Structure formats: C-alpha cells, structure tokens
Queue: 3 jobs
Job 1
Amino acid sequence: MDNIWIKDLIIEQLTDYNCFKEGWSEKFHPLKLIFPEQRTVHAKIHSIMTSFGTQTWEPLIKNIATRVGGFTVKNESDFNNNAPILIPKEIQTIMDQRRQQKGENPQLKHSEWYEEVVGLAKRYPATDFGKLNSDIFNGIDVWLEKDGSEYIIESKTVQPNSSIGKSMNTKMFQWYTLRALMPDPPKNLNCWLCFPFNPENKPFYDVNQTKISPLIPRIESKCEDEIWRFISADKIGWSDILEQIESAGEELKDMPNFF
C-alpha cells in the first residue's frame, strides 16, 4: 500500500521543532569554541530526541491507527480533565494491595485488576470529577478505541531506565482504576508501554526484561511490530516505517537551512 503519507507526516513533525524556527538560540557550551558546526548539529539533534516521542511517535501511532487500522482516537483531554478527583478510599486500599502483589508476582495481569475494579466501582462510585491532580495521578497521551475495546498507550525511549517497569506499573494501576470509575467503562481496556523500535542486535526483551518488570512482555509492553502491526490491522510494519523515514531523510537533504 502507498505509505508516502507517513514520510510527509515525519517531515511535517521534524520541521516543526523549535530548533529549526526563526528565533531559536543555541545555549553556550565550551565545545562550541572547538567544534562550532558539530556543536550546533548536536544541540539540534538533542532537542529533537528529547521530544521525539510526543512530537513524532505519538502522532504516527494515532494516524496509523485511524487511517489504516480502523481505530478511533479518543480525546485524551476528556480523560485528563474529567477523571475522579480522588479514588474512593475503599478502592485505593485494594488497588495498593494489588499493585504490591503485581510487583512481587509479575505474572498477575493488569486485566485481572481492571475486571475487579469495574465491579468495585459500582459499590464505591466516585463523586467528584475534574482535572487530574498531577501531584497524585499521571495523565494519558494516546487513547484509542476499536470494536468497543479501549487502548491507552504510553510511548517511551527505546533505552529505558532501570525503574521504568515499576513506574509504569503504578501509572497503569491508576489508569485502569480511573477509567473504571468514569462513566461507561469499556468491557476491555488495555494499557500498554510502547517501544517504537528495537535498537538492539538481539531480542529487545533479552536486554530489557528486568527493566520493564513487573510488566509482562508482549502483553503489557509492546515493541516494534508488536505495536505497529496491531494498530495497522497488520498492514504496516516497522520495515515500512523505516522505508519512509529513509525517504524523509533524502527529501530533507534538499531542504535549505534545515541543518
């Protein structure tokens, strides 16, 4: 299929970075005095890599999911601004217990908690709704729906830190709980940690399984084609995206003042 639109999207996102806009100023570093041109290139690349997830991968996930995979993108603001202000204490207590149990036994699935908390939410409903308290909860960035099931996806760097699994486990327990307490919770909800590609020369989880624990590889975390093939209904894979990234690079070479 024609995936040129992926190349166009990548170019559109890349050229929208502040470091390529008029008025951008490079912060001083002594290496600028030794490697002036290289230091400027490094500053721009660092700027891109810092926000590549939110500015490139997340829009690409949403576009592939809707244009190819038959998904609907739900407005994450509806989640972040209309969630329970607080989790009822009865549910909070049980959630903390289940989260600790998951940390001790990673084979316990988040889906089991969601099924349980949907029932708990009927007994202990939330009463006040509004903007998420950022001191307590984490908002979401990608929220998809298809055939009555919902998907909350968090895209992260492919070089995760040693605590990524523990922090994401906390986030996911919160998201499952908050969604269960919101109106019309879906029968199926999937929260995934997403790694857009595998930078290793060996299977991704061989290198990173300890870091992402207690998340279950391929079920609660997705890497490369585990995410791209799913959201595209098996029509687009990582090799297709790489081809368009390469084409974007060739086109950007001819763009004046891009670098």
Job 2
Amino acid sequence: MNEALKAGFALFVAGGVAGNKFDGLNEITEGAASDREELQRFTDRSLEEVSEDALLILTEQRRRFRRIKSVARQRFQDLVKDSSLQTGRHTLLNEADLQGIFNKK
C-alpha cells in the first residue's frame, strides 16, 4: 500500500476518536483498542497523534461534520422507532448522502 493511502487509512481509523474529541469527549476508552491495533499495521504513530490530525480536519470541515452527525442521528432515531427492525448492521448514510453533503458549498 502506498504512503498516501496508508496516511488516509490512518486518518479514517482515528476518525472515531477525533469525532469524540470534537464533541468534547477527550478520554480515549477501551473501545478504541481495535483502532490501536489497526493503526499499528500501517504506521508507528499513536492513536493519540493521528486523532489530533483527524481532529484538525474535522474542525476545518465542522459544518459538514455536523451535517453528517445530524443525518446519522435522525436516521438512527427513525430505525429505533421501526418495530419491524431486525437485528444487524444498518446503513445510516450511504454514498449518495455523503456526496450530497461534501459537494454542497
């Protein structure tokens, strides 16, 4: 894997921690253990370091990030209200949703 792709993947992996930090949850919990393991496969940088880089991106793109959060929250609430909902994984935002958010000026 080339270096640019590795760097992008590292930001992706650290994005959850960065999102928590963006919302004021600065403690990295045990749930991030799999993120740490994943990062070790691609970089020698720590989750803390990479999440700070990801946080800078979220801060610069705060309107888009807030829109993603808003849509995801609404879709989650809609799913929970659905009494016929089956256990499993459910998509909250699809590619078209994300493209709409990122292409909006």
Job 3
Amino acid sequence: MEPQWRSPVVWRRAGTGIAGLVVAASLLHAAVASAAATTVGVVDFYAPTPVPVIGAVIPERTAADELSALLAHAGSVTVVSRAEVARAETAMGWRPESVLSFGQLGALARAVGADRLVVGWITMLSVPGAGGAPLVPDGNGIPLAQAAVVVQVFDTGQGRIVAETRQSASDVGVVPEILVRDVLRNALAPAVPWLLAHFVPASMRATPGCCE
C-alpha cells in the first residue's frame, strides 16, 4: 500500500492553527500576570439620592466593603484593605461628592498605591421596614428588598473613568440590617468578573475569533 501523505496545504493550515493557539495561550498568561500585578482599591459608594442608615449599617460604606471582599476572594488582583482606604480618605478630608472629582480620585489612588480604583453609585435601594420604607412582600409574603448600582473603573495613570457597568438585584428577608447587606452583595457580585476583565490592559485581552 502506498503511504498516505498530507498535502502541504493541510500542514500549513495545521501549523497556522497551532501557532494561533500558542499566541492565545501567551496572551492569556500575560493577561493573568498583568491582572495579578494590578493593585486596586474600592472607594466608598456614592448615593445621588441619600439612602438611610439601616440600624448600624451605612449602605455606601457597606457596598464598598462587600465589593472589596468579593474582589479579594477572587484572588486575581491585589486589593488595598478597606481600612487603608478609609484612613487615606480621612486624611484627605474626603466627602461623599469627592468621588465625582477625577483629581480627588487620583490623589486617593496615589495615597494608597492603587493602579485603579473601583467607584460605585447606589442608584436605588429599597429595604422594607428601613427609613420608613413600606413592607413590600414578594409572592410568598416575605419582605422584598431591591438594589441597583453603577460600578466604574478609575485608571490612575489616565486620570479618568475607563469603564462602567450597571447591575441590579433583589432579595428577601425579615431583618433589615442583614437584608441590606445581602441585596447589595447580590447586585455587586455579577460585576466582579467584569471588573477583573477590565483590570487587564486592552492590548492583552483576547480578541474573539483571533485564532480560529
């Protein structure tokens, strides 16, 4: 039987595919290394419409605490502790509206050694029984809480917001102090993979269809 030979065209295509996979793997490795080398800090959230303190829970601070913990748990970036961010904010005389100033954000980022800051807005927060809010039940008669947030990435080097996402969630419960934490965490959790992707420089992100 005569030996079967692959045509040069087939080998060229195979070689191109392998080279593409090598490039994709190299980009992925570089992206993971870049994200791991990124230091981020989470700033106290801002509420355009004031939200009430619920028991001992300050929603703007709690949202930042929850998101910082979620990012630290993800383990792909170095997260500045919330205590360190709070000390820097206090030293700067930080006010809720300071989050609207790129200059203030840049100064805060440099003070804590962050490559990027995560900035958040609470655009809607409804917690039954808190701040005079009515007890709105879900279909089973259990109080229903709702939250909507905006999450932004501030790039220290560029001195501006470079990305933004909006998320919302709901949850049920009977203790307002617990419920507010749970509903904020539910709204923020889907933003974590999005944030991790945006901590990687655009030049290192995989391009869909690049290696087919």
